[in-house]
Specification:
There is one protein chain. Helix 1 crosses helix 2 and helix 1 crosses helix 4. The protein is built from 4 helices and no strands. It is mainly alpha-helical and 87 residues long. It has a single domain, classed as Orthogonal Bundle (Non-ribosomal Peptide Synthetase Peptidyl Carrier Protein, Chain A), CATH 1.10.1200.10. The longest helix has 15 residues.
């Protein structure tokens, strides 16, 4: 697990106030929605806002955002890509 993935897991737990889950319990390839963590579309919006504020990126223009928010590994790839593109 990369440092960025751990940082994103901490951000998810914090942004969604997941008091019963520690960042270490989230597998980087575990689905965030549905059968995984069971998050919903409101949670996705809160994660997007948290990512934008924390990393200074803009995820609102992303195509296929659903696949980009699939799991922590996908989010880490998105953050890396947007940081490169957006400076």
């Amino acid at each position: 697990m990369s440092e960025l993935e751990l940082e994103i897991k901490k951000l998810i737990v914090e942004a969604l106030s997941l008091d019963d889950i520690s960042p270490e319990q989230i597998d980087v390839n575990e689905p965030l929605f549905g059968e995984g963590l069971g998050l919903d579309s409101i949670d996705a919006l809160e994660i997007a806002v948290a990512l934008e504020e924390h990393f200074g990126i803009d995820v609102s223009d992303e195509d296929d955002i659903r696949s980009r928010f699939k799991d922590v590994a996908s989010l880490a790839n998105l953050v890396r890509q947007l940081k490169d593109e957006q400076g």
